[in-house]
Design goal:
heterodimer; A: alpha+beta; six-stranded antiparallel beta barrel; six-stranded antiparallel barrel; 14 strands; 30% helix; 27% strand; B: mainly alpha; 6 helices; globular
Amino acid sequence: MLSRQPGDRTVPTLVTLLVVGVLLMTFDVRSQGQGVTSVLRSGTQTIVAPLQKGAAFVVNPVLDLIDSLANIATLRETTIALEREVAELEAEIIALDDDMARLEFYEQLYDLETTGTDVGRTVAEVIGRPDPLDNALIIDKGTNEGIAVGQPVVDTNGYVVGSVQQVTSGTARVIPITVGADGVAVTVGEQLGVVTPQINDNILRLEVNPAREPVLAGEKVVTSSQSVRFPAGYPVGQVIVDAAPDGAGTLSTLVEPYMNPDNIRVVVILAWPPDPVAPVTETTTTTTSTTSTTLGGSTTTSTTGGDG
Amino acid sequence: MRLRSVLIVASLLLVAIVLQTTLFSQTEVFVPDLVMLVVIILSLTRLRPEAVLGIAFLGGLAVDLLGSSVLGLRAMVFTIVAYLALRTRERADLGRVVIGLWAGLLTLGGVLLLLIVGTLFGQTVLLGDGVVGLLLLVPAANTILAWIFAPMVARFVDRDTTAFRYA
């Protein structure tokens, strides 16, 4: 049945392909995924995207149904918890409406204008992931919907997910903060720090330098206003290990992100910075204070060189 | 390779890539590596060994291009897996179960290689969270799929209805 054995040309072919493979890897690492490799990746994604969207259209409802059946036992408890949450959120909305009315009154009173604070949002569905060893997310929105490389991505709760690494006309690839190569500038308490991913681990490492006070487990970590990749104030995760500044005034601890890339089905892409073409010096005027923030480098053309 | 074979192999790879990146990317327990499995199954066919190596390289390259890891990583690993499959395929032709186990072992070798080469290029680490799970789940899923589909796919590619028929 199996009459053919690897012939004399098998080994030379293998060696040739391995050499080509090593050369490709070296070239890709040295070019940091830009240039020719970036074009090749976009081209391949463009070709496969319609098939992926079609498959996701069929597959996702089936997977949702299986999920629902698996979770049917806890459905009643979930409904009660959600009803409680809705009631709390409705109360919060009423309180926020009061605050907004007061805010508008003061804006009119002092003749203030709010500029540059609105961030456009695009909701996208996760249609796939490359393979079991690759945690990137493929989403069903691309340049046709205004998605650009470098834009920040959050989940439906507003938790930071990652940023857009590659974009085609109809799809985009999102690299979660837990697997990307770049760090994110964050605030923990009153201190500024950087969270960086750890290879093959969903836990982030937080470095604070200079550190003035200890960081305690449970403290909330949010994106900093000094971040060039994310707007300020978006929740990243919470500290899971207490840490105190060392002799050199630095502090290092671990942060568990709020989002889990394995369970994400829907994401929100933020059109940030609002004016990506000229992110030079942006002056934001609000009713309570005036801040000047200098944003370095264009985040729409490259994802290299993160906050960290 | 004749045009028909080229079309069949290209279709198989495309279906594997689409299913891999959509359906099986969202399952938590059943996580096969379909492209690697197709490469392994193709080594059972009468395609020329050099062609199988080339297909393995291109299949891996396609997955690399769709993913976020370094370009060439899977291309290289899938080529090595295809070579090992070509060298050992005679031992698999004993029955469906043996074919499944053989494909599972080759997949285990492939995942290990991915982790090792990935570690060398800073893409992953051998001792990270979830590595043990991957080392168990991916080969197990490929074993099951090979047990079910490998003879059928090989017959289809070779257009030989008598191949891989076991009592």
